[in-house]
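Entry 14. Structure prediction run on the chain below.
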Amino acid sequence: MSASDLYEADILKWSEQQSRLLRRLAAGARVNDQVDWEHVVEESESVGHEQLHAVSALLVQAMIDRLKAIGWPHARSAVPARMDGNALLPLPIECPWSLDELLSNGAG
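Output returned:
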């Protein structure tokens, strides 16, 4: 089975195989022709995009949580659209936190 076929059939086995080959290549072994370069590059790009998407999603969730905390400062969790018959307090027009504040562990 070719590396490309293995990629389509079992990506976990493919990634393990390619990792072994890349380690051998890094150690000086002549296995360059066995590496599935097209898919290695594709997967490498994919990992970067997935990580960026994950960070973006976490930042959006952090902003949502902080906005809820502004809107209902006395609520601790499970914030509904209305609380005690009162609507959400006005929200800021611009993001009130810097990226560093969103990434920090402290509550802003």
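The helical segments are 3-9, 11-26, 37-71, 99-103.
Filed with the rest of this week's runs.
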